[in-house]
């Protein structure tokens, strides 16, 4: 940045919301992908007008600009590859309105997911996206990656639960898209376009979110199976009957072993397990549970039981949510992918992953949101094993090929970012990819917004 750009930043933000100090800039140069690059400055917006002025400045001066939430992203999407400026939205964290009558909330992008859920609970509502990182991740980050979580199987991901946005494009021009209504057929749907665009098209400064009433009661079931094939067969049967679970999580045998290390005997020993949650009014849960039990009763099922109380259900979920960090402690170089295939093809995917694992001598641990085919595939390799380090890229490539062969896609909720960018041409045909590049040029003609991400 030249001195005039820095002077302009001081005018927009003042000294208390701007830093060029090396250590602080470094702290805002990485995310959970463990990739990092240091920006030249970090700013802390608190108002929409500041974001507009900042973006116009960056457009005019051709300075890269990366919007950042809390850095929980796993694909490098918030790493400032080209230096420039990071805009951290941690101070733009107000819940502007909660409107139970219209089932909506209006929030700034820095609001934490868990803080929003806490504020909504007294009103009898929740916002559907519930990623594992909910206590730490921001709504802006959820929007950027189209975050999901276990509840997405019944209530949808972020894109299904946003009504309207206020944003600034790559020229610094303000616009609004969507309306605080659940129906709308007026022009192109820019709201859904921006969600999942990873900050490459515009910077969101306000979001109107669709809320869902809290269920009167929930019931958690744990079903164990002799092997992965039986468990995934049960998934397809569960999702083919009328009772839609509000969560349907899958863990293979190795994931179960790791979960037992975290939660003890609350996690059974088996070849695979499903955690199934149903919700609704209390008087309906017996029949819902029986429908799930019947659907899950495939050959190879060992047991299915209902959690005795809320404490046992909590231990099951805590063990499931502890899996990803637990895997990193035993394999610091793990590759974590969040692929998706049609639910009926999950058994095929798991079978092919086992073959790929043996071929490359790299353990693959699988768990995730089986109810919508979103499986977290974890390649575990040790840095001291030169053969595993050498084989890892080819192993990952074959994983993606298998997913695409099964009519799946590269990401369900983590996004593409930096780490999956070069695989995108395998997943998207050339004409569609060129249309995406054209959309990027329209929104961000100078290419300043999160450069080097998402599009190859």
Explain what you see.
This protein is an alpha+beta fold. The protein contains 16 helices and 18 strands. The protein has helices at residues 3-13, 22-27, 48-61, 113-120, 139-145, 152-155, 190-194, 228-238, 253-263, 285-296, 310-321, 323-330, 346-360, 386-405, 424-427, 430-443; strands spanning 18-19, 41-43, 65-68, 85-88, 95-99, 104-107, 125-126, 162-169, 174-178, 202-210, 212-213, 217-225, 247-252, 272-280, 301-306, 335-340, 364-369, 374-379. The strands form four sheets. A seven-stranded antiparallel β-sheet has the order 15-12-14-13-17-18-16, sandwiched between helices. Helix 13 packs antiparallel against helix 14 (386-405). The mean pLDDT is 94.
List the main descriptive attributes of the protein structure presented here.
single chain, 456 residues, alpha+beta, seven-stranded antiparallel β-sheet, five-stranded antiparallel β-sheet, 16 helices, 36% helix
